[in-house]
Specification:
This protein is of the alpha/beta class. 37% of the residues lie in helices and 11% in strands. The protein has a 5-stranded parallel β-sheet with strand order 1-3-2-4-5, sandwiched between helices.
């Protein structure tokens, strides 16, 4: 069952506090190359939460998304808006604190933008020390990792920012917003100092890179092999796995 926090009155919120699972998407507002809209991360995150709510046996209460995240690495491209990491951490910790004051027992931060990971983990570490219930960070791509080898059509360097995976998801969810450019201007992301920016590269080290140093168009990966059919498969796989996790682990400790 899916409910929206901003559609509930105070008595309806109270009725969900003990057993409800409160989910907040943390996304971004940033360029997604030449073919995807700036709200891509939010569209994908909110769609996954909706599907998970239909598949889990629990009540999911969706909070309004944090729709602007940490995107400094995209700021050389038009359409990007960013928060400082410290600001994002403060926003998330303030929301978690408010949820605890309300009496929420189970909170999931659902991240749909890789640039937010470090900030959200800091917030979880800071608040997790004193939060009395379950406080969990979920990143949907981690649930796809065991299956991506069977699903992907591109080689290493093909999945990342506005690449095969995100484009396929958007083709399935919002085909009217996808504008694949003619001439195939994109190329596979190249290795750099022993790393590759592909989302599933499994790099051993981390370093900051501005996206303008990766591609002149702001992409990581290519959408050439993307399809709505692949997007549906990715969505189904991810939501099955996340719903199973919630039913097995989050609800088990209520």
């Amino acid at each position: 069952m899916l409910k929206y926090w901003d559609q509930l009155n105070q008595n309806e919120v109270k009725a969900t506090l003990e057993t409800g699972i409160f989910v907040m998407v943390v996304s971004s507002l940033e360029q997604h190359a030449l073919h995807l809209p700036t709200g891509t991360d939010r569209f994908i995150g909110e769609a996954i939460v909706r599907e998970v709510a239909y598949k889990t046996s629990q009540t999911i209460v969706s909070l309004p998304a944090v729709s602007i995240g940490f995107s400094y690495h995209h700021m050389k491209f038009s359409g990007s808006i960013t928060l400082e990491q410290g600001t994002l951490i403060r926003v998330i910790t303030d929301v978690i604190n408010s949820l605890e004051i309300n009496g929420c027992k189970n909170v999931i931060l659902f991240n749909s933008h890789g640039g937010n990971t470090s900030s959200i983990k800091v917030a979880v570490n800071e608040m997790g020390r004193r939060f009395s219930g379950n406080l969990i960070l979920i990143e949907y791509w981690d649930f796809l990792r065991p299956y991506i080898g069977e699903i992907r059509k591109t080689t290493l360097g093909g999945i990342g920012h506005a690449g095969e995976m995100e484009t396929s998801l958007m083709m399935h969810l919002h085909p009217e917003l996808v504008q694949i450019p003619s001439g195939k201007p994109y190329s596979l992301a190249k290795d750099y100092k022993g790393t590759n920016p592909d989302m599933f590269a499994g790099n051993k080290v981390y370093m900051y890179r501005d996206f303008s140093s990766i591609s002149p168009y702001g992409n990581v990966g290519i959408p050439d092999a993307s399809s709505a059919e692949e997007g549906k498969l990715i969505l189904d796989t991810v939501t099955d796995e996340i719903a199973a996790y919630i039913d097995t682990y989050v609800c088990d400790s209520m």
